[in-house]
Amino acid sequence: MAPITVKKICCIGAGYVGGPTCAVIALKCPNIQVTIVDLNQARIDAWNSDNLPIYEPGLDEVVKTARGKNLFFSTDVDKAIAEADLIFVSVNTPTKKSGVGAGYAADLNFLQRATRRIAEVSTSSKIVVEKSTVPCRTADAMRTILEANSKPGCRFDILSNPEFLAEGTAISDLFAPDRVLIGSLQTESGKDACAALANVYANWVPRDRILTVGLWSSELTKLAANAMLAQRISSVNALSAICEATGANIDEVAFAVGKDSRVGAKFLKASVGFGGSCFQKDILNLVYLSESLHLPEVAKYWKAVVDMNEYQKDRFSRKVVDTLFNTITGKKIAILGWAFKKDTGDTRESPSISICNHFLSEKARVNVYDPQVTEEQIWLDLDETSTNEVDHKQHVSISKSAIEACKDAEAIVICTEWDEFKTLDWAKIYEACPRPAFVFDGRLMLNRAELQQIGFKVVTIGSGDV
Ligand code: UDX
Ligand code: ADP
């Protein structure tokens, strides 16, 4: 047997991973027809419109160039599956909310439903690729489902091809990835399937960046990479608490530490805590896996990364309350930034949500502004996380600009590092604030001296002097 030449790709799941990834594959491989499908009609309609369902720099251009030529968005899941020779499974795998492993393990319900559909609909052999982040050995479960439900003569080769793109830089990450990882069974057909997918990526990714490994190594690598990245942030955030207590400055410490080539400079920015759909979920997954494997010390080690993140969010919120003379009841506080990082409209696990809820539990009045997150999404996030202690509808308002959010605010809290916050007319904002006016820079992004000169009292994460 020789590797097949992939001509038609189906991607199940038109979310943050499936959408951008397969749009870039279509752009870079004009000879391959790529159909991205989703059960969610509104999402597919948005992908087919001028108003894409996700905000990602550079994405509009990619989609506009390929859509209608070799890139299609559809809700006809069965047709796209039936026609494809290779299927990416990019459905959501959130943390389980109930049952065994609740709060830790991944909910594989969506993945299993999609897998079952592939088996039921396929009338020819397929390469099935796990794109969603999954626990180690999920491919085994997928194979069992595929084999139990398949028609005679249909073969399924399963590959793991985790996606390492980061939101906000997804398109440049996809154009020039550090590596593409493909895991397969080390059988002849497994290796052929792996080569077929490698040939797709080789249309634009240098061969030496396409790594081929065993299936389980690939699955574990995704969890390991995210856990190690998050661990760096928790380490630097833990040090930021020491900086605040000693008068050291975390940016200076991180810069000097990062100059050691063994450590490296990236991912050492202290913050209000990490957010996003991956870090926490994947670490909790790793914790669950370790416990299932009877490795409690390993589980405890990784769990501490998430615990430190919770501590950081809580510590920052408390600092705001302490600084505002131990009470924020009835005080107006502006939260600038609701997305979990800049250049995305995604709010999953965003620290802003926890921080806002903390302020609400202290009965503050909160004004929120974010350049990309919709008002509807902010309400949804609060509805889902509200503790019902305080009616958030009464205490929160959502502003159309940073200036509007900051008007009359006793404290301005920077939660997301949007570039536009650097160039705001801070002098004008100061004029519209009661005295003393505080800025809490949870992203270490503003020019402290300039703000102080205007008159603000500035408190930053990881820096001792107020
Ligand atoms: C992450 C991984 O980077 C990516 O490889 C994987 O595919 C998915 O998960 P993402 O969550 O999109 O990507 O964004 P990332 O840039 O990793 O940021 C995650 C969180 O960490 C954000 O809240 C960000 O603000 C925070 N962060 C990042 C810091 O607090 N400090 C840093 O130095 C870097
Ligand atoms: P991610 O960040 O991993 O891409 P998202 O939640 O943004 O996660 O996207 C996952 C998408 O997968 C959602 O739009 C959801 O509707 C879709 N999806 C889930 N299950 C199925 C399925 N069985 N068939 C088609 N689409 C599905």
From TrEMBL:
<dbReference type="GO" id="GO:0051287">
    <property type="term" value="F:NAD binding"/>
</dbReference>
<feature type="binding site">
    <location>
        <position position="38"/>
    </location>
    <ligand>
        <name>NAD(+)</name>
    </ligand>
</feature>
<dbReference type="Pfam" id="PF00984">
    <property type="entry name" value="UDPG_MGDP_dh"/>
</dbReference>
<feature type="binding site">
    <location>
        <begin position="269"/>
        <end position="275"/>
    </location>
    <ligand>
        <name>substrate</name>
    </ligand>
</feature>
<dbReference type="GO" id="GO:0006024">
    <property type="term" value="P:glycosaminoglycan biosynthetic process"/>
</dbReference>
<feature type="binding site">
    <location>
        <begin position="222"/>
        <end position="226"/>
    </location>
    <ligand>
        <name>substrate</name>
    </ligand>
</feature>
<dbReference type="GO" id="GO:0003979">
    <property type="term" value="F:UDP-glucose 6-dehydrogenase activity"/>
</dbReference>
<dbReference type="InterPro" id="IPR036220">
    <property type="entry name" value="UDP-Glc/GDP-Man_DH_C_sf"/>
</dbReference>
<dbReference type="InterPro" id="IPR008927">
    <property type="entry name" value="6-PGluconate_DH-like_C_sf"/>
</dbReference>
<feature type="binding site">
    <location>
        <position position="167"/>
    </location>
    <ligand>
        <name>NAD(+)</name>
    </ligand>
</feature>
<dbReference type="InterPro" id="IPR001732">
    <property type="entry name" value="UDP-Glc/GDP-Man_DH_N"/>
</dbReference>
<comment type="similarity">
    <text>Belongs to the UDP-glucose/GDP-mannose dehydrogenase family.</text>
</comment>
<keyword id="KW-0520">NAD</keyword>
<feature type="binding site">
    <location>
        <position position="348"/>
    </location>
    <ligand>
        <name>NAD(+)</name>
    </ligand>
</feature>
<dbReference type="InterPro" id="IPR036291">
    <property type="entry name" value="NAD(P)-bd_dom_sf"/>
</dbReference>
<dbReference type="GO" id="GO:0005634">
    <property type="term" value="C:nucleus"/>
</dbReference>
<feature type="binding site">
    <location>
        <position position="443"/>
    </location>
    <ligand>
        <name>substrate</name>
    </ligand>
</feature>
<dbReference type="GO" id="GO:0006065">
    <property type="term" value="P:UDP-glucuronate biosynthetic process"/>
</dbReference>
<feature type="active site" description="Nucleophile">
    <location>
        <position position="278"/>
    </location>
</feature>
<dbReference type="InterPro" id="IPR014026">
    <property type="entry name" value="UDP-Glc/GDP-Man_DH_dimer"/>
</dbReference>
<feature type="binding site">
    <location>
        <begin position="91"/>
        <end position="95"/>
    </location>
    <ligand>
        <name>NAD(+)</name>
    </ligand>
</feature>
<feature type="binding site">
    <location>
        <position position="262"/>
    </location>
    <ligand>
        <name>substrate</name>
    </ligand>
</feature>
<feature type="binding site">
    <location>
        <position position="43"/>
    </location>
    <ligand>
        <name>NAD(+)</name>
    </ligand>
</feature>
<protein>
    <recommendedName>
        <fullName>UDP-glucose 6-dehydrogenase</fullName>
        <ecNumber>1.1.1.22</ecNumber>
    </recommendedName>
</protein>
<feature type="binding site">
    <location>
        <begin position="340"/>
        <end position="341"/>
    </location>
    <ligand>
        <name>substrate</name>
    </ligand>
</feature>
<dbReference type="InterPro" id="IPR014027">
    <property type="entry name" value="UDP-Glc/GDP-Man_DH_C"/>
</dbReference>
<dbReference type="Pfam" id="PF03721">
    <property type="entry name" value="UDPG_MGDP_dh_N"/>
</dbReference>
<feature type="binding site">
    <location>
        <begin position="163"/>
        <end position="167"/>
    </location>
    <ligand>
        <name>substrate</name>
    </ligand>
</feature>
<dbReference type="InterPro" id="IPR028356">
    <property type="entry name" value="UDPglc_DH_euk"/>
</dbReference>
<feature type="domain" description="UDP-glucose/GDP-mannose dehydrogenase C-terminal">
    <location>
        <begin position="334"/>
        <end position="448"/>
    </location>
</feature>
<feature type="binding site">
    <location>
        <begin position="132"/>
        <end position="133"/>
    </location>
    <ligand>
        <name>NAD(+)</name>
    </ligand>
</feature>
<feature type="binding site">
    <location>
        <begin position="13"/>
        <end position="18"/>
    </location>
    <ligand>
        <name>NAD(+)</name>
    </ligand>
</feature>
<dbReference type="Pfam" id="PF03720">
    <property type="entry name" value="UDPG_MGDP_dh_C"/>
</dbReference>
<comment type="pathway">
    <text>Nucleotide-sugar biosynthesis; UDP-alpha-D-glucuronate biosynthesis; UDP-alpha-D-glucuronate from UDP-alpha-D-glucose: step 1/1.</text>
</comment>
<feature type="binding site">
    <location>
        <begin position="278"/>
        <end position="281"/>
    </location>
    <ligand>
        <name>NAD(+)</name>
    </ligand>
</feature>
<dbReference type="InterPro" id="IPR017476">
    <property type="entry name" value="UDP-Glc/GDP-Man"/>
</dbReference>
<keyword id="KW-0560">Oxidoreductase</keyword>
